[in-house]
């Protein structure tokens, strides 16, 4: 909010406790609206849509296609999507990501962006510092939950721990690509 003090942020999530936690943090800020809603059905119009690490729920092309009607003229979308940085990933990384068969490389993401009728303005890889900002607190939470965890929770904790360990060991193979995109004008339209 510091970068755009006159701006307004509308944030949404389908999970009630995430929305409740965010509302508790931002309840006194009139520049923030928090909604329990589905990102697949955005009904308002925005200048900018940001989706960090969740576009895979819909697919890149599908998300951009759905969100086009929610963008004001001149609007843009930024999203991050996990992708391969090599054509020959380690067996461990390949095994870990077999759960996401749609995973592709930067060119594949660009093709999905184009298929939705958008152009890519810029891309960059998510930094190691950003990954560690996510995994370091996660490591602590896993450690705090591990004692006394039942089998179901232990399985979730093991999967989260393996995800972090896999990235730390093979960060050159995969990561998140942040893309900034905007819709191309449709034939016969004025920029939407």
TrEMBL record:
Q: Which GO terms describe its molecular function?
A: methyltransferase activity
Q: What is this protein called?
A: Class I SAM-dependent methyltransferase
| Pfam families cross-referenced by the UniProt entry | Methyltransf_25 (PF13649)
Family annotation (SUPFAM superfamilies): S-adenosyl-L-methionine-dependent methyltransferases (SSF53335)
Q: Which GO terms describe its biological process?
A: methylation
Please name the InterPro entries in this protein's record.
Methyltransf_25, SAM-dependent_MTases_sf
Can you give the residue ranges of the Methyltransferase domain? 5-75
Keywords (A to Z) from UniProt: Methyltransferase, Transferase
Q: Which domain of life is it from?
A: Bacteria
């Amino acid at each position: 909010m510091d970068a755009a003090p006159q701006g307004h942020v509308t944030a949404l999530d389908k999970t009630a406790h995430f929305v409740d936690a965010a509302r508790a943090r931002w309840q006194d800020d009139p520049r923030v609206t928090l909604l329990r809603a589905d990102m697949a059905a955005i009904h308002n119009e925005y200048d900018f849509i940001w989706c960090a690490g969740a576009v895979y729920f819909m697919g890149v092309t599908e998300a951009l296609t759905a969100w086009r009607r929610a963008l004001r003229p001149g609007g843009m979308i930024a999203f991050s999507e996990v992708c391969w940085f090599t054509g020959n990933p380690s067996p461990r990384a390949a095994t870990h990501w077999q759960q996401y068969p749609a995973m592709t490389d930067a060119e594949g993401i660009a093709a999905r962006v184009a298929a939705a009728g958008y152009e890519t303005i810029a891309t960059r890889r998510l930094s190691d510092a950003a990954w560690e900002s996510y995994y370091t607190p996660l490591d602590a939470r896993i450690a705090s939950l591990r004692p006394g965890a039942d089998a179901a929770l232990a399985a979730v904790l093991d999967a989260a721990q393996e995800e972090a360990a896999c990235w730390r060991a093979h960060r050159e193979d995969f990561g998140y690509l942040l893309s900034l995109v905007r819709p191309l004008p449709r034939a016969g339209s004025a920029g939407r």
